[in-house]
Amino acid sequence: MHRARKRFGQNFLIDDGIIHAIIRVINPKAGMHLIEIGPGLGALTRPLWALTNKLDLLEIDRDLVAYWNRENIDGIRVIQGDALSFDFLEWAKIREKESIVCKVVGNLPYNISSPLLFHLVSAANYISEQIFMLQAEVVERLVAVAGSSDFSRLSVMLQARYHMEKVLDVPPEAFDPQPKVNSAVVRMVPRKDFMLSNHEWNALEKLVAAAFSQRRKMLRTNLRDYLGKIPLSEAQLKSRAQDISVGCYLEWARVLVNP
Ligand code: SAM
Asked: What number does the ligand 1 atom closest to the CA of 39 have?
C-alpha cells in the first residue's frame, strides 16, 4: 500500500471517465516514442501501455520505481530521476534517426510545473506533442491572449515556442488525495515557425521578465533600460506588458540581438 507523498505532489487520478478522456487526447499508438512523467501507481500508465505496448516512465519516488520494477511489465522501461534535470533532448533525439512521433505526457506534480515546462523547451525541436495535467490556473495563463488579465510572462514565453490548447477541466474529486485547486489538461505542440537563436531566446527571456516586473506600471517604466534599443511607439510606452502581443515581443528580441 503506497501512502501519497505531498512533497512529490502525489495526487493520484481515480476517475475512470477523466482518465479515459486524457488517454483519448494523448491518442497513443503502437510505434510511438512515449514518456510519462510521474506514473505514480499507473492510472494513465496502464491504459497507455495497453495501446502502445511500449512506454518509458520517469519517476522520482524510489518506492514507486521499485513498484514498477516489481511489476516488470514487458515494454515498460522505468527511469528513476528528477524530471527537472532529465535530458529530454537526448531522449527525443531518436526522432532524428527514425522520424517517429515523440510525446511527453503526465499528470504533473504542481509544485514543479512552471520550471519543468521551461526545462522542456530545450527539447522542443524533437518533440511532437506534450499533454499535461496542471493546476487550472497555470493552464489559464498558458493559453491566455494578450489583453487578458491572465496574460503573463509564462504565456509569452511558452506561446513563443508552442501552440497551446486547453482540452479538459478536471475537478479535485477526480483525485485521491484531492488537491485544493482545480486542474486542467493542456496540449502543447511545438511551433514549426519558431526561428529564434539561443541568443535571441535569452534576450526574449530578459525583456519579458523586465516588461512584467511590475504589472501595473507602464512599459515606459518597466522597459526604461530598453528605450532607444527597441522600436516602442508612443502608444506602447503608455501600455502595460499584458497588452503587447507575443509576435511583438518576438520582434523586439530579434531587434535587440540584430540591431
Ligand atoms: N500519474 C499518476 C496519476 O495520474 O495518478 C500520478 C500523478 S502525481 C500528480 C505526480 C507524480 O509525479 C508522482 O508519481 C510523483 O512521485 C512524480 N514526481 C514528482 N516530482 C517529480 C519529479 N521531479 N520528477 C519525476 N517525477 C516526479
From this structure: 1
Neighbour count for residue 121 (Cβ, 10 Å): 18
pLDDT for res 79: 98
Helix H or strand E segment including 95: helix 94-98
Q: Which of 107, 114, 119 to mutate to test the pocket of ligand 1 (most atoms within 8 A of CB)?
A: 107
Checking if the pLDDT of 72 tops 80, the result is: yes
Tell me how many degrees the CA angle 226-227-231 measures, rounded to the nearest 5.
95
Q: What is the pLDDT of residue 69?
A: 97
Give tens-digit pLDDT for 38-63.
999 999 999 999 999 999 999 999 99
Contacts of 125 (CB under 8 A, 6+ apart): 190
Q: Is 67 in the pocket of ligand 1 (CB under 6 A)?
A: no
Q: Please, what are the domains in the chain?
A: 6-190 (3.40.50.150), 198-257 (1.10.8.100)
Using CA atoms, how far residue 17 sits from 20, 24, 181, in Å, is 5, 11, 19
